Amino acid sequence: MDGARPVHLRAAIPPGLPGTLSRRQQPRRRRPGAEHPFARRHPRPPALGGGGGDHRPAGLRLAGNIGGLSPSHRRFLEAGGIGFITGDGRLRYRAELAAEAYYRWRAAPGTDVTADLQVFGNPAYNADRGPVAVLGLRLRTAF
Predict the structure, then answer these.
(1) In this structure, what are the phi and psi dihedrals at residue 60, rounded to the nearest 5 degrees?
(2) Which helix (H) or strand (E) holds 61?
(3) In the predicted structure, residue 43 carries a pLDDT above the cut 90
(4) What's residue 52's pLDDT?
(5) Is the peptide bond before 46 cis (omega within 30 degrees of 0)?
(6) Which range marks the domain in which residue 65 is found?
(7) Burial per residue of 15-39, b for 16 or more beta-carbon CB atoms within 10 angstroms, e otherwise
(8) Domains: count for the chain
(9) Number of other residues whose CB lies within 10 A of the CB of residue 5
(10) Domain membership flag for residue 48
């Protein structure tokens, strides 16, 4: 994927309307000559669900992401380096896969409760790790 432009697919299903699917491309935004350890991370991964005028509507959402390392950071970790959250000295590199399903419930105006399941394949870009499943419960309140 080096030098390639990421392609994002996004689907929105507003209540009572058939789903729509759009394709968009975003050019990479890098400073000339800058090296970023997680150069293959996509800022807006594909997601299914949502829509309508409310940017936080209630309902079921599905999302996924495939993340990778820049070539220089990958070589650093394969040589035994340790990063902020990656590296145990034995990297067997694979792209990190993430999938998420969550249900957001509008408990009251300005208050959302979200139940969440995240599954990671090759966590920390290491084929010797995972898969890992994480359950979560979030409460968001706006005043």
Answers:
(1) -85, 140
(2) strand 59-67
(3) no
(4) 43
(5) no
(6) 7-26+36-141
(7) eeeeeeeeeeeeeeeeeeeeeebeb
(8) 1
(9) 9
(10) yes
Between the alpha carbon of residue 32 and those of residues 36, 49, 132, the distances in Å are 11, 36, 36
Query: Is residue 104 in some structural domain?
Result: yes
Look up residue 79 and give its amino acid.
A
Other beta carbons within 10 Å of 2: 8
Residue 1: inside a domain: no
Any domain includes 72: yes
For residues 133 and 73, give the distance between their C-alpha atoms in angstroms, rounded to a whole number. 26
pLDDT above 60: residue 106: yes
CA 122/CA 87 separation, integer angstroms: 12
CB atoms within 10 A of CB 132: 13
| Minimum mean pLDDT range among 68-77, 81-90, 110-119, 129-138 | 81-90
pTM: 0.58
Question: HEC profile for 63-121?
Answer: EEEEECCCHHHHHHHHCCCCCCCCCCCCCCECCEEEEEEEEEEEEECCEEEEEEEEEEE
Q: Quick one: tokens of 3?
A: 């030098």
Q: Which residue has the tokens 């394949």?
A: 121
Q: pLDDT tens digits, residue range 12-29?
A: 444 444 443 333 434 445
